Amino acid sequence: MGYLQGFAVTLRKLLKGTETGRVVTTQYPDEKRPKPERFHGRHVLNRYEDGMEKCIGCELCAGVCPARCIYVRGADNPPDDPVSPGERFGYVYEINYLRCIHCDLCVEACPTEAITESKLFEFSFTNRSDAIYTKDELVVGDDGRPQKLPWEDWKPGDDEHTSAWVRATSPSGRADYEGQVAWSGELGYGIRSPERGQSEDDSVEADLDDDHSQHHHDDHDHPHDDHGGHH
Ligand code: SF4
Ligand code: SF4
């Protein structure tokens, strides 16, 4: 199909939609569709409920990034004033958003759930250095929420479910673990609930509720209590 034929198809659809009131084209930015729960947007660096940073400076995220847009340097934690509960912490952390393709591989690689993504994608820059987010900009604030920078256009809900993939995945793909809470708490949110809707069986959901409440009472019963373990 040539260019003109392609445009003709578009024109016919538009005219037909105008007649019937069923226009399929969304008029961005005046009209917006809701973002999916697992939408990949601007990253955040998370903190534990006690305020410590989750990043341990291991550089796994930088190693796995296909766009080579993460730069991390780790450093030993000061014994008297540790930044993270690990031996080391992320001393330098940068993401270059001129390169990032929001594949989320960094999120999957992170052993401590330190790096996750919000739903924010509406941000632009007037210079290249603003496109390189530093640790000071990526780390969540004292309320556990992403910092809202002057050039970012946050919408309600963009800062919710920043750990969506973690809650959606059963560890190692084993069905037995579906819905099991195997992640650590987050500043401002606590221990997030597992994502629902992966099983057709209602009784499984009831079991998961029991498992979740039991987790709060006795972490030692959990099969993955060494996973990102800092509570
Ligand atoms: S989302 Fe993908 S491209 Fe972006 S920083 Fe993470 S690994 Fe790199
Ligand atoms: S964000 Fe995660 S994977 Fe990246 S350096 Fe920190 S702890 Fe390691």
Question: Could you walk me through the main structural features you see in this protein, from its secondary elements to its overall organization?
Answer:
The structure is a single chain. The chain has a three-stranded antiparallel beta sheet with strand order 2-3-5. The chain has a two-stranded antiparallel sheet with strand order 1-4. It is α+β, with helices and mostly antiparallel strands. The longest helix has 18 residues. The C terminus is likely disordered. The protein has seven helices and five strands. The protein folds into two domains: 122 residues, Alpha-Beta Plaits, CATH 3.30.70.3270; 56 residues, no CATH class. The chain binds iron/sulfur cluster (2 copies). The site of one iron/sulfur cluster has 13 residues, from helix 3.
Brief summary of the model shown:
The chain is of the alpha+beta class and about 230 residues long. About 25% of the residues lie in helices and about 10% in strands.
